[in-house]
Design brief:
The protein is an alpha+beta fold. Strand 8 and strand 9 form a beta hairpin.
């Protein structure tokens, strides 16, 4: 009887572990630029800032349920649409893929990799610069 219970428990534990490992990827949430690939070289946002390039310092994507997203760059926001495609996602007019849990956006000049920082779909004031707050 003990052997039967131990076998059942081990099967249940195995199924639980497999179920947790196959958690479905969730695109919706808040994403922040983490690094960029430019001319074949990869730079973190911190490295770009150190070189005087702060374009990606305040770049966010807030992807909402229902196919709407908000882009925020340097405190300026814009609403765009998104959809799932055969090869990944299309955000606005840009094809995107998931690479090592990062959202890879190829803008034609290079690639920007966004990391998910929250499941929140709320556009928060902290993502907006003081320039926008004055308007």
């Amino acid at each position: 009887m003990k052997k039967l219970i131990a076998t059942i428990l081990s099967i249940v534990m195995s199924i639980s572990l497999v179920a947790c490992g196959n958690e479905e990827f969730k695109l919706t949430g808040t994403w922040q630029a983490a690094k960029a690939e430019i001319d074949g070289a990869t730079f973190t946002v911190s490295e770009l800032e150190a070189m005087g390039e702060d374009y990606f310092s305040d770049a966010y994507l807030i992807i909402k349920d229902g196919g709407t997203a908000v882009t925020i760059e340097k405190g300026k926001s814009d609403m765009i649409n998104w959809e799932e495609t055969e090869n990944g996602y299309k955000i606005g007019y840009t094809e995107c893929t998931i690479v090592d849990d990062l959202l890879c956006v190829d803008n034609g000049y290079g690639k920007v990799f966004f990391e998910k920082i929250s499941d929140s779909q709320t556009v928060e004031e902290k993502y907006m610069s003081s320039e926008d707050e004055e308007k």
